[in-house]
Design goal:
It comes from Saccharopolyspora flava. Keywords: Membrane, Transmembrane, Transmembrane helix. InterPro entries: DUF112_TM. This protein has one domain. It is built from 18 helices and two strands. The chain has a two-stranded antiparallel ribbon with strand order 1-2. Strand 1 and strand 2 form a beta hairpin.
C-alpha cells in the first residue's frame, strides 16, 4: 500500500504541465530517432544527455523515459515497414510485421505493435511497483550455469521452429556464432577471425549485423527480383483492427508481458531473449500456425508486448541493484551519476521523489505513445507507397547512415555490405535469418558464462548443470529436440482406438 501512495505522489510530480511537455517531447523524439536504422533509444538518450544539463533531474529523467519507449516503438516501425530493425530487440517484429505490410496491412501491424507496447508497459510497470524488492532479491541468485541454460534454450527453441528444415536453422545459427566470436577473446586477449585487421579487434556491432542481414540483404534480394515482381506501390490500409484481429491478439498481448518482465528484471540481458521466446510460444499456441512466416498478427502482438514489459523490468535491476542490463539502462545510469545520484538498494530511500516520479512518467509515456502513434500509423505506413526502387535505395542510404553512426568508422560500411551479401546468400539458399541474429547477440555472452561456470567448478562439466534451475531448463531443451520423434511415437487421437462395431483380435 505504501508503494501505491508513493506512486500517487510521483504522478502528482509527473503530471505538472511542464513535465508533461518533456514526456511528450521525449516520446516524439524517441520515435523519430528510433525510426532511423542503427540509431535506437540508447543512442538517442546518449545524444540528448548534454541537452538535459540545464534541466532539473526529475524533468530530465521524465524526458528519458519518453525517449526510451518512443525509441522502442520507432525501431519496431522500421522493422515492420522496411524489414530494417533499428535495434536488436526489434528484429522479431520484422518476421511477421513485414509480411503483413507487404499484404497491405502495415497500418494494422503498427497498430498491433503500438497496443502491444502500451499493454506491455502498463503490465510491466505495475509489476515493477508490486514486485521490485522480491524480483531484485531473486535476481542476485541467477548464476552463470543458469544464464548459459537460458541462452541454450533460446538457441534451440528458435532454430527448431523457424524455417522448413532444422539443418538450415542450425546452419544459420552457426553463421551467427562465427560472426559473434570475431574480435579479441575477452579472457585471453587472443585474436579470433580478425585476419590481422585492427578494425575487427573489437568485434562486429550487433546493429551492423542486424541491419546488414535484414536491410541490406533484403534490398539486394528485392533488386535481384525487381523486374520479375510487381512493382506497384503497396496499399496502406487502415489502422483500425478488425474483430477477428482483436480476438487473435488479446491473448498474446496479455501473455507477452509475463514473459518479458522477468527477463528484463534479472541481470541477464535485455528484451532479445523474451521476444524470441514469446514468438516461439505464440507460434506453438496459435490456431493459425500456417500463417507464421507469412504475416501472422500474433507474431507481432506477443513479442512487442514482451519487449515493452522487459523495458519496464530492466528498471528493477538498474534502480534497486545499480546493474544496467541494457544499453539504455547503462546510459541512464551514467545520467544518474551525472547528477550525483547512485542507483542501488538505498536509492528508494534517498531519492524517493525522483524514483517514483520516474516510474509514474513511464506510465504517462506509455499512454502518450499510444495516443500519438495510433493516429500516425497510416502516415508511417505511407512509406510503403514510395516506388520500390526509390524505397529500397532510401533503405540502403539510411542503413548506411545508421551503420556509420554506430562507430563513426568508414570501414563499418564495408563490413555492413559484406554482411549484407551474406544475408542475400542466406535468402538464396533458404536459411532463416533470425537464428544468426540470436547467435550474434547471445553467443559471446553465453561463451563467457560457460567459461565462468567451468572456472567455478575447476573445469568439471558438472558445473554447467549444478543448479535446479539449469537442470529444469536443459530438460525443456531435450524435450524440444525430441518432440518430433515423440510426436510420431504417440498414438494420434482416433487412430488407435477401435471404431464402433469393429472386431478386436485377441
Amino acid at each position: 500500500m505504501e508503494s501505491f501512495n508513493l506512486l500517487l505522489d510521483g504522478f502528482a510530480t509527473a503530471l505538472t504541465p511542464m513535465n508533461l511537455v518533456w514526456a511528450a517531447l521525449g516520446v516524439l523524439l524517441g520515435t523519430a530517432i528510433g525510426v532511423l536504422p542503427g540509431i535506437g533509444p540508447a543512442m538517442a538518450v546518449a545524444l540528448l544527455l548534454p541537452v538535459t544539463y540545464a534541466l532539473e533531474p526529475t524533468s530530465a529523467f521524465i524526458m528519458f523515459a519518453g525517449i526510451y519507449f518512443g525509441g522502442m516503438f520507432g525501431g519496431s516501425t522500421t522493422s515492420i515497414l522496411l524489414n530494417t530493425p533499428g535495434e536488436s530487440f526489434s528484429v522479431i517484429a520484422a518476421l511477421e510485421g513485414n509480411p503483413m505490410a507487404r499484404k497491405g496491412r502495415g497500418a494494422q501491424a503498427l497498430a498491433t505493435a503500438a497496443v502491444g507496447h502500451f499493454i506491455g508497459a502498463i503490465v510491466g510497470l505495475t509489476l515493477l511497483v508490486l514486485l521490485a524488492p522480491t524480483v531484485a532479491s531473486l535476481a542476485v541468485d541467477i548464476g552463470a550455469p543458469d544464464y548459459l541454460a537460458i541462452t541454450v534454450l533460446a538457441f534451440i527453441a528458435i532454430t527448431s521452429v523457424l524455417g522448413k528444415s532444422r539443418i538450415r536453422g542450425f546452419a544459420s545459427l552457426l553463421i551467427g556464432l562465427t560472426l559473434g566470436i570475431i574480435g579479441l577473446d575477452e579472457m585471453t586477449g587472443q585474436q579470433r577471425l580478425t585476419f590481422g585487421m585492427l578494425h575487427l579487434s573489437d568485434g562486429i556491432d550487433v546493429v551492423l549485423v542486424a541491419v546488414g542481414l535484414f536491410a541490406i540483404g533484403e534490398s539486394l534480394w528485392v533488386a535481384a527480383h525487381l523486374r520479375r515482381s510487381n512493382a506497384e506501390p503497396i496499399p496502406v490500409g487502415r489502422a483500425l483492427l478488425s474483430g477477428s484481429d482483436v480476438r487473435r491478439t488479446w491473448k498474446p498481448w496479455l501473455r507477452g508481458p509475463f514473459i518479458g518482465f522477468p527477463f528484463g528484471a534479472i541481470p541477464a540481458g535485455g528484451a532479445e531473449i523474451p521476444t524470441f521466446l514469446s514468438y516461439v510460444a505464440e507460434r506453438r499456441l496459435s490456431k493459425h500456425r500456417d500463417e507464421f512466416g507469412k504475416g501472422a498478427i500474433e507474431g507481432v502482438a506477443g513479442p512487442e508486448a514482451a519487449a515493452s514489459a522487459s523495458a519496464a523490468g530492466t528498471m528493477v535491476s538498474m534502480l534497486t541493484l545499480g546493474l544496467p542490463t541494457t544499453a539504455v539502462a547503462a546510459v541512464m545510469l551514467a545520467a544518474f551519476q551525472q547528477y550525483g545520484i547512485q542507483p542501488g538498494p538505498l536509492l528508494f530511500e534517498r531519492e524517493s521523489d525522483l524514483v517514483w516520479a520516474l516510474i509514474a512518467s513511464m506510465f504517462i509515456g506509455s499512454v502518450l505513445l499510444l495516443v500519438l502513434n495510433l493516429p500516425l500509423a497510416p502516415v508511417w505506413a505511407k512509406l510503403l507507397q514510395i516506388p520500390r526502387p526509390y524505397l529500397y535505395a532510401g533503405i540502403l542510404f539510411f542503413a548506411s547512415v545508421g551503420a556509420y553512426a554506430v562507430g563513426g568508422d568508414p570501414l563499418d560500411l564495408l563490413v555492413l555490405f559484406v554482411i549484407g551479401l551474406i544475408g542475400f546468400a542466406m535468402r538464396r539458399y533458404g536459411l532463416p535469418v533470425l537464428p544468426a541474429i540470436i547467435a550474434v547477440i547471445l553467443g559471446p555472452t553465453s561463451e563467457q558464462q560457460m567459461r565462468r561456470a567451468l572456472q567455478i567448478s575447476d573445469g568439471s562439466l558438472s558445473g554447467l548443470v549444478n543448479t535446479p534451475f539449469s537442470i529444469t531448463v536443459y530438460c525443456i531443451v531435450v524435450l524440444i529436440l525430441l518432440w518430433p520423434l515423440l510426436a510420431r511415437l504417440l498414438p494420434r487421437r482416433g487412430q488407435d482406438a477401435p471404431q464402433e462395431g469393429e472386431k478386436v483380435e485377441v
